[in-house]
Specification:
Blueprint: H1 2-17, E1 25-32, E2 35-42, E3 47-56, E4 63-74, E5 86-97, E6 103-115, E7 121-134, E8 138-151
Antiparallel strand pairs: 1-2, 1-8, 2-3, 3-4, 4-5, 5-6, 6-7, 7-8
């Protein structure tokens, strides 16, 4: 418990010095299909690369999923005092399936994020159609929510 308290205090202190989320590296969690670790690296103010290492419990065969996406962010779609960019992009997913053939597919991503103006976090929800290319073609639909802490 003491280690957790020290970690929490450290993150709280760091957050006072780093407020913008449209730059730097973020790491957090993603919940849904699949569930796991999510990361994001901002290339500039509107473009980023995200990645995930996650586990899928939905189908009869559980699977480890790895994905990476190139994302564009539109900050001017939703007018608000807070920052709610709509983002979209494309990427790839490798799914390593227990007891079945592994899959490789193309991802299309659309989502909305909330970028806090007070602390270095974001929260997001995204819808991701995945067109599996190998070993056979099929279509999956992933839906997830998540949050990341940004280390600027």
């Amino acid at each position: 418990m003491k280690k957790f308290s020290l970690l929490f205090l450290f993150l709280l202190i760091i957050s006072k010095f780093s407020l913008a989320q449209d730059k730097g590296n973020g790491l957090g969690i993603i919940l849904g299909e699949p569930t796991g670790i999510s990361g994001k690296y901002w290339l500039d103010n509107t473009k980023a690369i995200d990645f995930g290492l996650a586990y899928s419990f939905v189908s009869k065969n559980s699977a480890l999923s790895l994905h990476a996406d190139y994302l564009y962010h539109a900050f001017d779609v939703i007018k608000s005092t807070e920052r709610f960019p709509i983002y979209y992009g494309f990427g790839a997913r490798l799914r390593l399936v227990n007891g079945a053939e592994n899959m490789l597919g193309a991802r299309g991503v659309i989502g909305i994020a909330w970028l806090s103006s007070k602390i270095p976090i974001d929260a997001f929800i995204e819808l991701v159609p995945v067109f599996n290319l190998f070993p056979s073609t099929s279509l999956n639909l992933d839906l997830a929510i998540g949050s990341r802490y940004f280390f600027n």
